[in-house]
Amino acid sequence: MSYTDAFAQAAKKNTVKTKGKVEKVLPAQPAPAAAPQEAPAPQKAPDIIKSIVVEGNQRVETETILAYVAISPGEAFDSERVDISLKALFATGFFADVKFEQRGDVLAIKVVENPTINQVLFEGQKSLTKEKLEKEVQIKPRAWFSLGRVQADKKRIIELYRRSGHFGAVITPKIKELPQNRVDLIFEIQEGAKTGVRDINFIGNNAFSDKDLKGVIATQESKWYKFFSTRDNYDPDKLEYDREELTKFYLNNGYYDFNIKSAVAELTPDQKDFYLTFTIDEGGKYRFGDIKVNTQLDRLSTDALKAIVPVKTGKLYVKDQIDKAIEAITFAAGSKGYAFVDVRPREVANPENHTVDIQFDVDEGPRVYIERIDIIGNTATLDNVVRRELRISEGDAFNRVLMDASKNRIQALGFFKEVDVKEKKGTLPDRTIVEVKVEEQPTGELAFSVGYSSQESYQFDISITERNLRGRGQFFRFRIATSYYTKNIDIRFTEPRFMGRNIAAGIDVFSVETDYLNYANFLSRSTGANLRVGFPLSADKNIGLHYTFRRDTIEVPNSSCFDSTGAILATADSICASAGDYTTSMLGYSFDWDRRNNPVKPTRGFFVDVSQDFAGVGTGVKYLKNEVSGGVYYGIIPGWTASAKANVGYIDGFGGDKVRITDRFFKGGPSFRGFKIAGVGPRRIYANRAIVSTDSNGVNTYSNDVTYTYGDALGGKAYAIGSFELTVPTPLPESYGISASLFTDFGTLGVLDKSDKYSGDVAAGTYATTRDGMALRASAGLSVFWTSPFGPIRFDFAYPFAKQDYDKTENFRFSTSTQF
């Protein structure tokens, strides 16, 4: 392959002759353009130019060239105007050379056109993709070739490689000449070794250890086991970000005078890694001093505003609390009808007593209207999916409360890792542009979970889920689950905007087999479908309607219900009575009220869910089922969040129908940590008394000592379960992705119809009875969450400290999922 330079004059000194080819490398710096040649002073030539001719142009039209010439036919020759024309033609970038010649009364313009780019190629790249490099370079195919532009792109590529840790990258631009004055531009890349961060040092830190501060900054030290990490490369931009994060960390821990004196990156002697050194001045620790709120707005009370401000006198100075105070005041003003308020905090430091006085000046701001709403960063999700969650529109008066509500609604979709809604200046003083910047995150999930208990039961669950199907916000899931108890196949689809309206509609198709033969002495099969529709009542309240039709089959071993002649046994109980085929036609509704500040990781607010199902619509079994759940969240300090949750339910038959065992509540496993699935609640108990003697008539005498065997779980008609949970930070750096929470679960399950209870003949040697006490159960433990490279993993360690002797317990549960 023959490479040559478009500028023969500039590349002659770089020519290397080899057998059969001439290779020319573009010079490292653009060759300085030759000084514009002034037209020679005419000798005996007329002073008036009668015509202008253009020579040498192939692609650029003559009329286009003449448009840049500052002299016209019929005008006197002027060297200054010729010089201006020369510079204008060079500035277009179309030409490699331009000359003006006066030939009597004719002005000749001789041009050498730059070649055009046929294609831009990259050779030798490994760590960066071709697509990423193409986005970085500015010169594109069909553009004019310019040595200056090529060198500028070379610098961009080098900078891109440096940001990725390749500080020794060498970029050599070359060209291949083609017919019709075209060239292929080729960037030959030698990436070199990847430079990491060998050590990070801090000088001047007394309040926090080096380990603490390393957990704050984004840059990490290179370690052999961090093969999935991209944060252990030196990046100058990242270093500036680290400075900001350190400053933010200290300001949020009371160090008002904190200052970073220097942040230096030094290349190691072997030129493979960097040493990073931060020299800091922590200063003293400050607390909040006097807090004042000043406003002249009629409908706002300074005392009321001061009460909602999270900044309190005597508390540790936390910079973020000031921003939260501004948000709280803005929200309160918006609720009073002031859509446009200007909150200006004024901080006055008192070094002698280490306090900072804060005064919030609240004034009504100018009325501003939304000129445009820009959606940025949604590479997979369609624009309308984001826009339909906005509470604001183009042309509306700007309202910060509605803008914050829009942000929460977009975050609640679960499609984006980050959502940032901010305003920018519009084209007029009373116009603003709302920019919604999102960062997509995986919405598809290939998930599986595995668990086991002390009784060696197991659970395996695999599902494929897409929460943003085709970028339209549609939900689809195909799930197969199997365990010691159940086999479940279900398909679920939801359209969040049915027929373009603010109504969510969906369908579920399912087949479930529950094998409780060893624990509840029955096996059930259910096949059916469920239709759902839901719509909002307000910004935080929703109601849903659903209809379910299913066919149930309950199988009970004959040996436990009937003797060899087919007669029902005396020990037969409500499980035997439930055997057979049943149809369920059920209509229900649900209501939820969600006031959490963040639906993914709430730190304040509450939620309430209410549901009621009416079975017996037209046909089938008859019962009424009611369930209520709710939770409250409270952020104590950053990283510490307390929550309390409760769930209650009750089901009862009507029209002469009892509640069959498959419709009762079974709790345990994920719904009651520390207890096995179906491990809590009413249970059949077998009592055994040994034979002491037998008289001549064959009558046995039994011992008073009784040995109990705990048998089948019977479920319950009522339950109440609560939990307290405290999310706590771990001593590990945040980059490890490990978090934890302490919890305690407590509650009860029970209540059976009298006919569903069995009490055997206590005079017999072996008899069965039913335990149905609404006794309190409770457990406590630790949950550990790890955002691993393979997906989120959860470990639950639980100890049941209040239980009945017939309950089934478990102490450990493990689950994981992988996202795509």
Report on this model:
- The chain has 820 residues and is mainly beta.
- The chain has six domains: 8-29 and 115-190, Roll (Ubiquitin-like (UB roll)); 51-113, membrane protein fhac (Ubiquitin-like (UB roll)); 196-281, Ubiquitin-like (UB roll), CATH 3.10.20; 287-364, Roll (Ubiquitin-like (UB roll)); 369-440, Roll (Ubiquitin-like (UB roll)), CATH 3.10.20; 444-819, Porin.
- Helices cover 14% and strands 45% of the residues.
- A hairpin with a 7-residue loop joins β22 (504-515) and β23 (523-536).
Structure keywords:
single chain, 820 residues, mainly beta, Ubiquitin-like (UB roll), 6 domains, 16-stranded antiparallel barrel, three-stranded mixed beta sheet, 13 helices, elongated, disordered N terminus
The percent range for strand residues is over 45%
Fraction in helix: 10-25%
Assembly category: single chain
CATH topology of the largest domain: Porin
CATH superfamily of the largest domain: membrane protein fhac: a member of the omp85/tpsb transporter family
- Total helix count? 13
What about the largest sheet?
16 strands, antiparallel, barrel
Strand element count: 36
Mean pLDDT across the residues is: 81
Going by helix content, strand content and strand pairing, the class is: mainly beta
List low-confidence stretches: 1-24, 29-35
In the CATH hierarchy, the architecture of the largest domain is: Beta Barrel
CATH class of the largest domain: Mainly Beta
Q: Determine the N-to-C terminus distance.
A: 43 Å
Number of domains: 6
The rough form would be described as: elongated
Radius of gyration: 39 Å
Strand order of the largest sheet: 18-19-20-21-22-23-24-25-26-27-28-31-32-34-35-36
